[in-house]
Model the fold of this input.
Amino acid sequence: MQGQLFRFIQFVLLMAFNIFMVVRYGGTPGRLLLGARIVDENGRYPVIKQALIRDSFIIVNSFLAVVVSLNTEALSAIPSSLVNWSPLAADINVFLGWVVVVDCLFVAFTQRKRALHDLMARTYVVNKRRWTVI
Done:
């Protein structure tokens, strides 16, 4: 049970960190090192709502992966309610994995090279040095 709680807390902290970094600094550490920023239509860093929409695929996929991974522990340690949901979570996770692939393919086929999550959140990824859309 402690392992499950630790995994859930780790998940929540990582997602909160990602949202905080996007809202406060315009990107996660890797994106910032590359000189890219995430901005809204007015050139400002996204608000919390936009950051949540932008990361929604990753948040849902990661949560389902945590539920699926709970099934790999000793069965006596997993509440029966989570064990029953694990196969469904695995199937949904596979489907959402393909949704993430399609999301990324949007970059290749949209005029301003925006992924589906950027279109949904009304955000752009720009080069900080030139402030142009990447």
